[in-house]
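#struct-pred

JT: dropping the chains for the assembly here, can someone run the whole complex?
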Amino acid sequence: MSNIAYIPGDGIGEEVTRQGIKVLEYLDNAYNLGLKFEKFDLGAERYLKTGDILPDDVLNKLETFDSIYLGAVGDPRVEPGILEKGILLKLRFYFDQYVNLRPIKLYKEEFSPLKGKGIKDIDFTVVRENTEGIYAGIGGFLKKDTPDEVATQEMISTRKGVDRVIKYAFEYAQEFGREPKLTVCDKSNVLTYAHNLWQRSFKEMGKNYPDVEQNHFLVDAITMKMVRNPEIFDVIVTCNIFGDIITDLGAEIQGGMGMAVSGNINPESISMFEPVHGSAPDIAGQNIANPLAAVLAAGMMLRELGHGNLTPKVEEAVKDALENNMVTSDQGGDLSTDEVGDYLVQNLKSKE
Amino acid sequence: MSNIAYIPGDGIGEEVTRQGIKVLEYLDNAYNLGLKFEKFDLGAERYLKTGDILPDDVLNKLETFDSIYLGAVGDPRVEPGILEKGILLKLRFYFDQYVNLRPIKLYKEEFSPLKGKGIKDIDFTVVRENTEGIYAGIGGFLKKDTPDEVATQEMISTRKGVDRVIKYAFEYAQEFGREPKLTVCDKSNVLTYAHNLWQRSFKEMGKNYPDVEQNHFLVDAITMKMVRNPEIFDVIVTCNIFGDIITDLGAEIQGGMGMAVSGNINPESISMFEPVHGSAPDIAGQNIANPLAAVLAAGMMLRELGHGNLTPKVEEAVKDALENNMVTSDQGGDLSTDEVGDYLVQNLKSKE
Ligand SMILES: CC(C)[C@H](C(=O)O)[C@@H](O)C(=O)O
Ligand SMILES: CC(C)[C@H](C(=O)O)[C@@H](O)C(=O)O
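RK: done, full complex below.
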């Protein structure tokens, strides 16, 4: 039995996650998973009507669930940042989802902007620290709005916070790396406090994983390698802000936001899964949005709910959709959002 | 009259900057520039022999020069970071070189790792703040080396520091942009103190430049755009750490470190110019290192010394070298480092 809180959110969030739910419901039936869904309306509509972003009673209710499945938040009528911070970041911090898991996987060679790189070359995972670093929200202003103004923003790393995400990354590399190999990405040559801690944590934790190959890249160098030699990576672990940057770069080399998935994971508690793309208000409600990332997010959630055997099945179905051009127009097909979802279910069914 | 302090540094630094000096000496003769060079030996050799990295008497002496021309620092016998911080960062901060100017310019289509992007598409400049932000070096440890350890690293932005680099960027966009267009890159949706200051500075400064098109990208989004649509950029202004990251990504899309140039500029005082590549100890002393970035750095220095008319001439000579394959083996040619320098001088001569 798993209770899934389902937050479609804004714009295309509703229609793309509907396809994810479709796939989940099919698998639930076929494999007796005992999934239950409950929908929560959070997002721009609610905020504009009531002023509520994420009220306490909703937070308390969410605590009783096993997992959260999120569509997208953001609306042109709301100042950028408000909903992202008030819902997305809030949930990450509140549920202490200390791992942001971002697979960088190219499904179709022509999607990548990189010359000569195929699906074998672009297939790694970024494990981003998701609850501290410069996302702590700590800082301030001195003499604001004067020529002498000083603004500070604190990057805070705790040994506990860094240790646990590095441990997760090592274990992920052991279980899911093509080869067991973990790269730590930091700027330890300049961030001599916060990233010195990262260095020490990585080295010490690494002693427990002698079977995992271990190496280090500075963040500036890693962006170069990601576009020149992405094939050298298996699992990368990094801090919150660098993770933010390199996972978006990664999303682009894997073919853009249409395929990028994000798991906000607390292995001991409630995790949250979402497509990386935004709410795309310009195409919302037209049944033309690409649902593949939302479906892959649902697939990733299954692993966290203890059905890891089904995650690759979902990925295979998505791969088939791409190969058979059963996709939306942004990916070169002519199906509607709903039709893509239907195809995926049929595809899964046909393989039983 | 211009006095140039010349710091070849480590590894290939000596042989590549020798070609830059060759080109400068030729132009000096041809155009009566009155350039004088004095060599300073800083780097690993000196550090290993004497323990000195950048002694005060050298710093004082450097103050009497008009410009600094640097090769590369770094040596496998010295712990990474020591020389970079002790020489490179030290000079940037000491001389308050608040602009790091990094042209991202593709000279030859096949050098880029990006599909379908030609030399017209990859041609923009990053103006990186170079003296503050998270490079301030401020932070500390609490309960170091215990499980309860906390490490902090402070990002500090001052209104004065941000205003001046944004002003520089606007003026650079006016003078050198393909069209006058300036993009600010930050993470203002999360760094609600430090990058809120950036936002306000950009908006207010922008009022003085109504002829310059102005837009904004979050740092995560900009890395995506840089690999998918680099043609949309003309001049980008950003903070120290994001500048570090996106300029290296930029170096890669323009064909790798072999062509990347960095100007550390204090418009009112002493600036420093360097190729971005490292000291490459493995190929040092063999006369095979690619000198083009070092030569381009010399060309960029000429502009700062008041000979901006000569900078494009140097760039043209480099372009000719590439077109005629008068380059080193890493770029597909078979010339030695020295021969490339000689070719560039001949090429410049032939155009008088
Ligand atoms: C929306 C924003 C606050 C968020 C972040 O910076 O973490 C997003 O970019 C992401 O990567 O999920
Ligand atoms: C060597 C290092 C300290 C330096 C930096 O981070 O600024 C380098 O990466 C650069 O971009 O010039």
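JT: nice. Residues A 189-190, 220; B 84, 88-89, 244 surround 3-isopropylmalic acid (ligand 2) (CB under 6 Å). Chain A is about 40% helix and 20% strand.
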